[in-house]
Amino acid sequence: MFKRQILILFIIMLATPIFIQKSTANTHGYVYDISYKKIGLGQLVVDINWDGQKGVVRTSADMSLLYIDFSGSQESNIYRDQLSKKILTKNFSRVSKGFSNVNMTANFFKDGHKVIINNNGKKQTFTDKNNQIIDFNAVVLQIGEALKARETHFDFYMQTSTKVAHYFFMVTGQEMIKTRFGKINTLKVVQARKNDRVLQIWFAPSMNYKMVKFRYQRNIIDINAVLVKHP
């Protein structure tokens, strides 16, 4: 159970099931070293490519723990909605192997108010007339957009493989982070309204508000990641 939690919680830590595929890091990606306590697990790679108002985000990982290899990826097609001024999801695909075998696709309609997913051949439809649903990759980018707008409290409705989850975040201040590039001034964002876990994410204004570090703690789990390569 512990190793399964490591898999699920590490990849972006918002209770999203793991995405799977071998990591395909390149010079255009943001690369993060992942560790459990002080034990290196592997790397997370995030590639972000915009073409006008449309974009593609590819998140991939390649890790090993206790002689067990596991890896993952998710590809999301996103766009900037002119009406809401938010980054929304058009669709995403995810595949998993190992502890959790998942072959999932999700298509978003009506600017995120309706989502149809196909998870291992099982189709489900989710709707929300009042709120726009997005995927994890869009959540991370949208946090950066909120920080640019000097917002300090924000929330998102995120599609997982089983439900639409409502997440709340808040800015707790500025913090200087040590990286291999030197010290970087960051804005510290934490997940709010969750008493059973601690999720902390640091974003750098000098890097267009990209994530440079995160930490997730829950029970005996203590996962850390820090940026080691960027475009």
Morphology:
globular
Can you count the helices? 2
- Total strand count, please? 15
| Strand order across the largest sheet | 8-7-6-5-4-3-2-1-15-14-13-12-11-10-9
Mean pLDDT: 83
Order of helices and strands: HEEEEEEEEEHEEEEEE
Main sheet properties: 15 strands, mixed
Query: How far apart are the termini?
Result: 37 Å
How much of the sequence is in beta strands?
Answer: over 45%
The radius of gyration computed from the alpha-carbon positions, rounded to a whole number of angstroms, is 17 Å
Low-confidence spans: pLDDT under 50, at least 5 residues? 1-27
Helix share, percent: under 10%
Secondary-structure-derived class: mainly beta
